[in-house]
Inverse folding.
């Protein structure tokens, strides 16, 4: 089996036009549990991925950059050098902060809010949401969240117009500005340091409180200010995951209107 794995890895590596790096020499015995079929499946997921297109191959993640040793189960550190913004922000939010502090990863058993029972021992890392071999962001945007989250707000998302538009769009190239997923609101897209490109802010705590942060940085990309604020400060509406129009009417907007009218001498 060890030899089989070694051959499969070297075939994949040559497919990936690897830069002459070979993992075969350092393939350890613990990789023995992987069958040839599993390896073929992983390769098939990787081949059409954004990574394969960008020449990010098996060894980019499975080889320690210093020792050159084979790493069987890479963690977030293997992504960090290429995805600094995503990794640094992930480590600041509730999902990642335990890893930043050198503790064991967050698991649903530690949660205060409802989680799927079958996910209780699932460990939080980049691969909790991403299939690390296909790096498909469609599946990551909603389905991955619902493998763990089981509270009313999360489950109600499927009843919303936001969800309908996401499903109607299908698995198009992401990011898309036309639909709203869990990640549109909770892992918001921001301009990077250069200001030319965007990156996904993976800090899932960042825009929860105060709520006007999400209203202005997310909702107002599509809705007017008054609509956004009247929606986000309606607890029932948040609980229903925005599956009806807003019903509350924030008084402050009336005050602003009165002031405006006074100023305009009406
Ligand atoms: C973007 C980084 C990345 C790339 C590229 C990548 N892998 Fe992985 N791979 C990972 C991570 C992260 C894990 C650990 C998943 C886990 O802990 O369950 C993993 C796990 C594995 C496993 C172990 C699965 C298990 O259940 O033990 C195998 C085998 C594997 N990868 C093979 C490959 C092959 C072959 C390629 C190239 C076709 C490849 N990987 C490309 C990141 C990557
Ligand atoms: C050697 C550099 C490198 C490493 C290591 C790497 N990536 Fe990537 N990743 C890239 C490049 C390049 C792209 C394509 C970027 C683009 O198209 O803008 C990409 C794209 C992605 C995408 C978006 C895919 C899409 O369809 O838009 C995700 C998600 C992703 N990577 C996750 C990861 C994760 C998780 C890890 C670690 C397990 C990782 N990457 C490791 C370079 C890397
Ligand atoms: C591996 C399981 C798992 C997955 C997958 C997952 N989460 Fe979580 N998430 C958790 C746990 C555990 C908590 C902590 C809950 C608690 O403390 O009550 C949490 C907390 C949160 C919080 C609250 C953060 C805070 O500071 O209170 C948000 C928002 C969140 N997750 C959104 C998401 C979104 C969006 C996705 C998908 C893109 C996702 N989660 C995927 C397990 C998961
Ligand atoms: C809670 C789930 C979750 C976790 C954990 C997570 N991601 Fe993501 N990630 C997503 C989602 C969802 C998207 C797609 C967001 C969108 O485009 O709406 C995404 C997008 C990305 C992208 C593509 C960015 C772009 O510009 O298109 C990269 C790269 C990435 N993640 C890397 C990582 C890395 C590295 C880690 C670990 C440090 C990680 N992710 C952990 C859910 C997650
Ligand atoms: C249109 C925006 C939007 C969408 C879509 C959305 N959420 Fe939320 N989410 C919110 C707002 C607003 C809050 C309340 C923030 C606060 O006051 O703490 C929230 C709160 C949460 C919390 C924290 C709950 C708590 O009691 O601590 C979790 C977890 C969460 N959302 C997960 C999800 C998941 C999973 C999805 C997709 C299935 C999703 N959300 C879709 C806006 C959204
Ligand atoms: C990418 C654009 C986009 C973003 C971002 C966005 N929405 Fe929406 N929202 C829409 C679209 C499109 C609809 C559907 C309009 C329709 O069909 O009438 C909608 C519908 C709604 C509805 C009405 C639901 C119904 O059943 O009539 C509410 C309430 C709502 N959004 C609140 C919010 C809040 C609050 C935020 C931020 C936390 C937000 N939206 C973020 C595009 C967006």
């Amino acid at each position: 089996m060890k030899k089989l794995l070694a051959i499969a890895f070297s075939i994949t590596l040559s497919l990936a036009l690897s830069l002459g790096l070979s993992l075969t020499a350092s393939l350890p015995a613990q990789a023995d549990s992987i069958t040839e079929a599993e390896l073929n499946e992983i390769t098939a997921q990787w081949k059409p991925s954004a990574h394969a297109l960008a020449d990010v191959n098996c060894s980019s993640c499975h080889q320690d950059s210093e020792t050159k040793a084979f790493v069987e189960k890479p963690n977030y550190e293997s992504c960090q050098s290429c995805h600094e913004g995503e990794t640094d922000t992930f480590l600041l939010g509730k999902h990642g902060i335990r890893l930043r502090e050198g503790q064991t990863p967050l698991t649903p058993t530690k949660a205060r809010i409802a989680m799927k029972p079958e996910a209780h021992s699932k460990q939080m890392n980049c691969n909790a949401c991403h299939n690390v071999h296909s790096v498909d962001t469609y599946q990551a945007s909603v389905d991955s969240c619902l493998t763990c989250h089981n509270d009313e707000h999360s489950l109600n998302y499927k009843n919303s117009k936001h969800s309908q538009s996401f499903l109607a769009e299908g698995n198009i190239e992401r990011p898309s500005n036309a639909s709203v997923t869990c990640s549109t609101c909770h892992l918001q897209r921001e301009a990077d340091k250069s200001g030319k490109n965007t990156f996904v802010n993976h800090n899932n705590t960042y825009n929860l409180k105060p709520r006007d942060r999400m209203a202005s940085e997310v909702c107002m990309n599509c809705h007017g200010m008054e609509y956004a604020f009247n929606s986000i400060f309606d607890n029932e509406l948040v609980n229903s995951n925005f599956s009806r129009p807003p019903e509350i009417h924030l008084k402050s907007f009336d005050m602003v209107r009165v002031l405006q009218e006074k100023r305009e001498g009406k």
Notes: The CA atoms of residues 98 and 105 lie 6 Å apart. Residues 80-205 form one domain. The two ends are 84 Å apart (CA to CA).
